Amino acid sequence: MLLRRTCKQVTHLVLQAEDSALPWPEKLAVRLHLLACKACPRFVSQVALMRRASQRWRRYSEQAVDREQDLS
Question: Could you read off the pLDDT of 34-60 as tens digits, one per residue?
């Protein structure tokens, strides 16, 4: 079946989707796999958590630089 993906393929696609949009057949394949798999939705949640943590760290770092420049 064309839409059937392994966990390894899905994790690769999830990470690829962080950088660019997936074509609709790939999106559909990932969604179908996530409905049937117990582990991959956890991986998707972990990737989202890492993305949010990275964004917070970037904002924190930018604010720290701004504060240092204000003190100078």
Answer: 999 999 999 999 999 999 999 999 888
